[in-house]
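Before relying on records like the one below, remember that each one covers exactly one chain. Contacts with other chains, cofactors or solvent are not represented anywhere in the record.
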Amino acid sequence: MTELVHRADHRGITTLTLDSPANRNALSATLVGTLSDALTRCGKDHGVRAVVLTHTGNTFSAGADLRDPPHPDALVGLMRRIVELRTPVLARVTGHVRAGGLGLLGACDIAVASTTATFAFTEVHIGVAPAVISLPLLPRTDPRALARYCLTGERFEAPEAARIGLLTATGDDVDDILAPVLDGLRRASPQGLAETKQLLTARVLEAFDRDAADLTALSARLFSSPQAREGMTAFLERRDPTWAE
């Protein structure tokens, strides 16, 4: 089986690259497990000052893999691992992000995307809701904008994603944006980074502690519903679902 996550290390920065372009880096059970394991190893490696999460192909992540979906508990665990990691996690996005992939962005401490990237919460189109990915997103993004994009499934561009707090910054060259950020992280002490990150993620972790069990149950219920089965079938068959007007 092709390796789904590649690791590269350079001067204290570990880059984890999602490499499943055949399904647009969809969050399969296998990919979620592999990425979780890679993050766990990073957390145990005292030489890692920060983690950069990036991708191959033109899509950062297309959301849940409908043919091999992860259990909601596994996706919650992955996002929590990003939030709890003592080293900062940065998202480097040069492609499109959909549905569950937006949960990864919300969990990251810093998220940078190229101006060609696009974003969409497409869950409502297949009969489900952005249940578990709301855990890191609700504390960090503009509530009015989040309501609009989650309810309509509209596509929006990188500048709008930055305006509503989904992204830290956007520009034509993401590496130019990241260069001073990574330099600053290399200059920071490991203790300073860990303690500062803990301060900044406290509200997000409160949401996980309070709501994760209920939202996991909601996600499981919705994905097993008749409307979700119709929505996912329609998506895979490239047709409109029965409720589309």
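The mean pLDDT is 96.
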